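Data card: per-record layout.
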Amino acid sequence: MKRLFLSVLLPVCIIMAGSCEKENTACNPSSSLSVTANSSKEEDNAVLKQLAEELYNISGSLNCNQTDNWKIAPLGAKPCGGPHGYIAYRSDVDEVCFLKKLACYKDQVLFYNQKYQLISDCSVPPQPKGVVCENNKPVFTY
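The structure for this 142-residue chain is written out next.
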């Protein structure tokens, strides 16, 4: 089952990366960045950290000066289901690519959770209702 999941997950992320390559190379999930069946936990943690940093770099690449052009998306995946958090992004980034990269990150986290048979407290993080701009950065409102 794990091999089947990995054999489907990796090509999907690579295809998604290729479809964005022509549009904006800054938002591509790197095909070398993936949690694999043979990688160590330290390597997997580094992959997830780098993918999350890329998402936050894209999200933070534009100043927050108007709240009406910001959107909120679920981030990652908890072992019990649902996101482990949320990320704000401006609607004028390459949204299609950003959302594909976000989905690829979620898939990598899901595989990581399954690979290490993780459990969680099953709490649900509060979903932000909106975004306000403070010091040119987006801040969630609840």
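Known properties of this structure: Residues 95-115 form the longest helix (21 residues). Residues 2-18+46-141 form one domain.

See the next section for split statistics.
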